[in-house]
Amino acid sequence: MKAMVATGTAVLILLAAMASGWLLRLLLLKGLRTRHPGEFDALGKPSVRALSSFVPRYGEMQVQFWKYLWEGKVFLLKDAQLSGLAWGALISDAALLGSVVLLFLSAGK
Q: Which of 1, 20, 42, 56 is deepest in the core (most CB within 10 A)?
């Protein structure tokens, strides 16, 4: 029974983290496009659809945006709104990773 609760919790966290991460990245991209167009252009003008795609031609753009976010370059812009969105995206990524780990641990029981 505990394994079922842990698995259900992990799945709910996984879905919530995926949805919130998608929304926060959408808002972050819109903020970059409107408030810092030079940074947006330097990233290759990504879209949420391109960042969530499995099409190989978007692979470099996905890696570039992921590195931009996880290396903290967005925080160098000194924009409080974008920094808050970036923190939210990082937290949702951590929750996503944690839920996957919890899912594997609960599936092993």
A: 20
What is the rounded CA–CA span in Å between residue 27 and residue 106?
A: 33
Phi, psi of 93, rounded to the nearest 5 degrees: -65, -40
What pTM did the predictor assign?
0.82
H helix intervals, 36-79: 37-42, 48-51, 59-70
Closest CA to 19 of 57, 48, 55: 48
Q: Cα–Cα distance between 57 and 24 in angstroms, integer?
A: 23
Per-residue pLDDT of the chain (109 residues; tens, 9 = 90+): 676 777 888 888 889 998 998 899 889 999 999 999 988 888 888 877 777 777 777 778 888 888 888 888 889 989 899 999 999 999 998 998 998 888 888 777 6
